[in-house]
């Protein structure tokens, strides 16, 4: 049942739940909005992302040890701290440096490695791992933009790309590759080495990262599936299209 609707300043591209029961959204007006319980219609507005090369948009938001991290089309990964007011306290960049092409600086997705390192994927076809303000790994091997990246409890990093493949990595080494059958838009950890993928063909696929074997497939929509979420307690997987 729909409990209510909240307006943003532009098309919403990403949303994440926060530990305090609230949630954050990123939208195409370059603003991150943080909604607190009981104050749903008065969000905190986090402005730090900017237009670059004629494009706008916050494409990823994620919790960051009680705070928040966001990434967008300006190539910036911004860190936000919750206090009396939300404040930006750090920034990372690096996607697209030394790479030729249009908008190769865009950061399209965020994730966490099992050891806590921040993961970012971008239109420069790479995944990067960060500890503090230092890049500690560069994962190269995709031929089109990386649209999704996650860390698995088993220790692997999994990336999904527009090149219709899924990469399974440990450190900077690509261990395995899965043929997804369509451009990959989203990934979701399902516990251990199991993960789900979905994308342009509307199908959700279940995989084992240890073997790169597809375990199951379900048609969830007639077109793009853009988001996945796993409910561990109920062993249920939800797809958004």
UniProtKB/TrEMBL annotation:
Gene3D superfamilies: YVTN repeat-like/Quinoprotein amine dehydrogenase (2.130.10.10). GO terms for cellular component: cytoplasm; nucleus. InterPro entries: WD40/YVTN_repeat-like_dom_sf, WD40_PAC1, WD40_repeat_dom_sf, WD40_rpt. Keywords: Cytoplasm, Repeat, WD repeat. SUPFAM superfamilies: WD40 repeat-like (SSF50978). The keyword Transmembrane helix does not apply. It holds the Pfam family WD40. It comes from the Eukaryota. PANTHER family: PHOSPHOLIPASE A-2-ACTIVATING PROTEIN (PTHR19849:SF0). WD repeats lie at residues 139-169, 192-217. One of its GO terms (molecular function) is ubiquitin binding. This is Guanine nucleotide-binding protein subunit beta-like protein. Coiled coil: none annotated. GO terms for biological process: proteasome-mediated ubiquitin-dependent protein catabolic process; ubiquitin recycling.
């Amino acid at each position: 049942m729909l409990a209510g609707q909240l307006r943003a300043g532009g098309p919403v591209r990403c949303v994440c739940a926060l530990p305090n029961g609230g949630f954050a959204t990123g939208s195409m007006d370059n603003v991150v909005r943080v909604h607190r319980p009981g104050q749903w219609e008065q969000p905190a507005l986090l402005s730090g992302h900017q237009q670059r090369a004629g494009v706008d948009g916050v494409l990823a938001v994620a919790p960051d040890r009680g705070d928040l991290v966001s990434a967008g089309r300006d190539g910036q990964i911004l860190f936000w701290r919750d206090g009396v007011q939300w404040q930006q306290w750090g920034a990372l960049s690096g996607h697209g440096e030394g790479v030729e092409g249009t908008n190769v600086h865009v950061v399209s997705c965020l994730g966490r490695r099992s050891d806590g390192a921040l993961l970012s994927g971008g239109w420069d076809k790479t995944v990067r791992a960060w500890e503090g303000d230092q890049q500690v790994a560069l994962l190269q091997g995709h031929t089109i933009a990386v649209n999704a990246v996650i860390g698995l409890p088993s220790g692997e990093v999994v990336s999904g790309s527009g090149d219709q493949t899924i990469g399974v990595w440990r450190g900077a080494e690509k261990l395995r590759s899965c043929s997804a059958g369509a451009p990959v838009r989203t990934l979701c950890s399902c516990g251990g080495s199991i993960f789900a993928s979905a994308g342009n063909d509307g199908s959700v696929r279940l995989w084992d990262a240890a073997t790169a074997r597809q375990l199951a497939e379900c048609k969830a929509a007639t077109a793009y599936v853009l988001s996945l979420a796993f409910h561990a307690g109920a062993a249920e997987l939800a797809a958004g299209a």
